[in-house]
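Contributing new records

If you add data, match the layout below exactly. Sequence lines come first and carry their own label; structure lines follow with theirs. Keep one chain per record. Anything else will be rejected by the validation script.
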Amino acid sequence: MALPNILAGYALVPELLQTAATPTALAVALLQQLDRARLDSDYLGTFARLHADLRRHADTTAAAAVFELLEDRGRLVPAGQNHS
């Protein structure tokens, strides 16, 4: 299953697997999705909601965890100080 469909809990995007994923089938599905995005105002909103649900600021969270670990172990050297 396509990840957007799993996250949405319903068939949000078409799934063309294996032999069904022909160039013609992919082109038709793409055009249908472009039309759907143009005609269904909630369609793109669903993707925006999924994005917001997935976005967890992992970069900031990871940096804070590393900073805390270094600070706890006394290995954090403030800017401008020697590493001796």
